[in-house]
Amino acid sequence: MSERINSAWSPSSREIQRRGERKRISRRQAAIAAVSTTVVLGTLLIILVTSPGWEIVKNTFFDIDYGREVFPTVIAGLWINLQLTFIGGAAIGVIALGLALLRTTKSPALTPFRFLATAYVDIFRGAPLILIILLVGFGVPALQLKGISSNVIFLGTVAVVLTYSAYVAEVIRSGILSIHPSQRAAARSLGLTSGQTMRYVVLPQAIRRVVPPLLNDFVSLLKDTGLVSILGVTDAVRAAQINASRTFNYTPYVVAAVLFLLITIPMTRYTDRAIRQRTNAQSSEGAI
Amino acid sequence: MANVLELSKIRKSFGTELVLNDLSLSVPEHTATVLIGASGSGKSTLLRCINLLESIDDGQIFLDGEEISDPLINVDEVRRKLGMVFQSFNLFPHKTVLENITLAPIKVQGKSKEEAITATLALLKRFDLADKADQYPDRLSGGQQQRVAIIRSLALNPRLLLLDEITSALDPVLVNEVLSIVRDLKSDGMTMVLATHEMGFATQVADEVCFLESGNILERGSAQDVLHAPKNPKTQEFLKRVHQAGRL
Fold first, then answer.
1. Exposure on the CB side of residue A241, measured as CA atoms within 13 A
2. Which residues contact B149 (CB under 8 A, 6 or more apart)?
3. Using one digit for the tens of pLDDT, what is the confidence trace for B166-208?
């Protein structure tokens, strides 16, 4: 037990002197940082605005009035991206968890499903997302199956879910495998079955451990929903494209990019913080 | 007195390395059997084999007369009757002390939550850990964690307690608080098999001391005989080294 801080303590003259020195050092460092930032960013800005094509670029990519005009249609498209992200994200979570559990099970009855899960992950993790979107988007309607919607938003979501559930399954599986075998031994020695051990001991720890990489995948998912535009879904990317090709002014693309960034930058900042906290927690877990 | 545990000619190898070689051992009810020997002599492997965490290559293991080395046995049911405590505690870091201890009584024995909590709080109180019930393991000292691990295995009222070098990861000051629990259990009549390097403690609790060397018991007998008047030269050599390390 550490002792309580003595309230009667007042800093020694040496400590007061040290504090003054520390303050001087940090003031000097702030000044250096400010000068360096101004020089570097200033130089980049000068290179940009003095480039021969700057006037044309300014008019075709940064036309504020046109940007304002197309803003409502782009943001309506972004709403599609967000819906796709959240609905798809929920489906991805469920499917990925199932795949990860199947791939780590040793139950003999589930052997064929384990093979199927492995094949599934190999295929959808290995093929480019854009190809899966094209194959599902144009291939499934061609089958003319009854009861299967040929709605492009639905098919686009299916394609994204197929690919991302393979990615996420691998992340969850790596989390499961990262739990030390001694945890399993402790649980089994208490008489818990392998299923109970997975559910109450391994999985809760594994999921906690992979939350930061999962948040990363979530950010990627939001960006990659833009790819369903190739099926003709009027999402933010497609809405920007329509407006851009109408006027040959590319400002709508910049508007769409900025809107995506407004969502993804806070999300990545949050993810970075979660990873930092996770790392700190793990270092204090060292005794276990 | 009936034997709780009976090992007959146990053989176990990892790859080409023979870890247990024709090892036989009987553990009567209410007795403590202490396994001593250098690292790698097979103490931990023996305990893990008894708990069916490792499968054996040959021989038989009987628990209360029932052969538990039968492949058709329900291992989960066997393990319910055996408590095991590990060198590295192995508490579940995502669960509080109370949850760590009540998990098995609730999920394995089917006790109600209230019943399990009442029983656990009584155990925690008995071992001076009542105020830690809602703490997470990483908030506890090593000695406290190991005491919780012991209580966790006691919560199932095991027939036999297996203790695998439970003080090896603790600093000397914390060792005693853990060993005093084991002394309490011994005087309660708990049947135990324990691997340890604490020879003083072995003298206090052991009904039988077994010296293991390359997978077999070279010398066995009372603590007085084996620890203080060993006959086998290898036992003498081992105890001399323990002496030099200041652990007796």
1. 13
2. A186, B85, B86, B89, B90, B91, B166
3. 888 888 888 888 888 888 899 999 999 999 888 888 888 899 9
Q: Do B90 and A186 touch (CB under 8 A)?
A: yes
| Secondary structure letter of residue B3 according to DSSP | E
Question: A117-157: per-residue pLDDT in tens?
Answer: 999 999 999 999 999 999 999 988 888 888 777 788 899 99
Q: Do B90 and A185 touch (CB under 8 A)?
A: yes
ipTM beyond cut 0.90: no
- Residue among A2, A178, A189, A198 with most chain B CBs within 10 A, to mutate: A189
Secondary structure (DSSP) of A23-78: HHHHHHHHHHHHHHHHHHHHHHHHHHHTSTTHHHHHHHH--HHHHHHHHHHHHHHH
Which residue of A lies nearest to B152 if distances are taken between CA atoms?
A190
B11-23 burial string, b = 16+ CB within 10 Å, else e? bbeeeeebbbeeb
Give residue for tokens 């809405």.
A239
Give chain A positions within 8 Å (CB) of B82. Answer: 189
Which of B74, B81, B94, B96 has the most A C-beta neighbours within 10 Å, making it the best mutation to test the interface with A? B94
Helix (H, G, I), strand (E, B) or coil at B72: coil
Burial class (CB in 10 A: 0-12, 13-18, 19+), A17: exposed
DSSP assignment of B136-165 equals -GGGS-HHHHHHHHHHHHHTT--SEEEEES
Residue A234 CA, chain-centre distance (Å), reads 22
Tell me which residues of chain A, numbers 150 to 209, contact chain B at a CB-CB cutoff of 8 Å: 182-183, 185-193, 196, 200-201, 204-205, 208
**Whole-model pTM?**
0.82
Helix (H) or strand (E) holding A87: helix A64-104
Interfacial B residues in 121-150 facing A (CB < 8 Å): 137-138, 142, 145, 149
Contacts A285 to B, Cβ<8 Å: 93, 138
